[in-house]
Amino acid sequence: MSDITGNPAKPTGPAGEKMLERMNASHKPLRDWGLSFVNWKEGMYILDVGCGGGATIRDMLGYSANSHINGIDYSPISVKMACQTNQKDLYKQVFISQGDVTDLPYGDNLYDLVTAVETIYFWPDLSKALQEIHRVLKPGGLFLILCEGSNPSTPRPNIDGHFVVYEPQTLKAQLKAEGFHRTAFEKGQGEYIAVWGCKQ
Ligand SMILES: C[S@@+](CC[C@H](N)C(=O)[O-])C[C@H]1O[C@@H](n2cnc3c(N)ncnc32)[C@H](O)[C@@H]1O
User: Fold this and answer.
1) Is a pLDDT exceeding 50 seen at residue 2?
2) Which amino acids bring their CB within 6 angstroms of ligand 1?
3) How far apart are the CA of 130 and the centre of ligand 1, in A?
4) Is 47 a member of any domain?
5) Of all helices (H) and strands (E), which one includes residue 132?
6) What pLDDT score does 4 carry?
7) Is the pLDDT of residue 196 over 70?
8) Is residue 4, in this structure, part of any structural domain at all?
9) How many domains does the chain have?
10) Ligand 1 centroid vs 184 CA: distance in angstroms?
11) 28 lies in a domain?
12) Which residue puts its alpha carbon closest to atom 20 of ligand 1?
């Protein structure tokens, strides 16, 4: 999120491609920290929303052997990069689609885990997005949000598009309001947050 060249809200053009490559690397500490809150098992059904350059998907393949992982992003550049990053496993374990988190092209009750890494800031209709994520989760499934930024008072560069930095309490309350159970959060280094909730 610290790097805005290429538009992190919806990566476009060559600058967007370069930014996604950089984010695949620069978000690694957040992924390493935040993905450790998941109770990993073999053969999980996973969806990564706002998958960007696809590094979260690549990492999760290592955490859950024989998993099936869908990625979705509304930026065509992100879809292309996520496919490249996961080329070895594409159409075997990994399936990437272009689409919006508020209108997920998946059936009900499918996923053990939905992840959203460094993307929730850019969702104008958070409530609708959370309803969609809740719909596609299996009963007992987990939704995990990871963000590098969680202090709305920290000065940020202007972003081309919707951009809101949330405090973890706000996200936790929002998850609860949309019907998630066992909602909780952890804070990490700097402004890192992991916020999660389960479908009952
Ligand atoms: C800052 S990038 C982060 C990408 C990746 N998750 C990562 O950690 O590197 C945010 C991504 O969210 C995507 N995104 C933002 N709003 C979205 C929406 N409503 N539906 C789908 N994707 C969205 C953007 O296109 C972009 O690829």
Assistant:
1) no
2) 1, 8-11, 23, 27, 50-53, 56, 73-75, 78, 100-101, 117-119, 122-123
3) 15
4) yes
5) helix 126-136
6) 58
7) yes
8) no
9) 1
10) 23
11) yes
12) 100
Please check whether residue 76 is in contact with residue 48, taking contact to mean a CB–CB distance below 8 angstroms.
no
Average pLDDT over all residues of the chain: 96
Q: What percent of the chain has pLDDT over 90?
A: 93
Residue 81 CB neighbour total at 10 angstroms: 26
> What are the percentages of helix, strand and coil residues in the chain, rounded to 5?
35, 25, 40
Full domain range(s) for residue 44:
13-198
Average of per-residue pLDDT across 48-76: 98
Protein residue whose Cα sits closest to atom 23 of ligand 1: 50
CA 49 – ligand 1 centroid, Å: 7
Domain with 89 in it: what CATH number?
3.40.50.150
Round to whole Å and give the CA distance between 134 and 73: 18
Helix pair angle (13-26, 76-85), 10° resolution: 50
pLDDT in tens, 77-132: 999 999 999 999 999 999 999 999 999 999 999 999 999 999 999 999 999 999 99
The string of pLDDT tens digits covering residues 104-114 is: 999 999 999 99
Residue 109 resides in a domain:
yes
Query: What is the Å distance from ligand 1's center to 161 Cα?
Result: 12
**Separation of 8 CA from ligand 1 center, angstroms?**
7
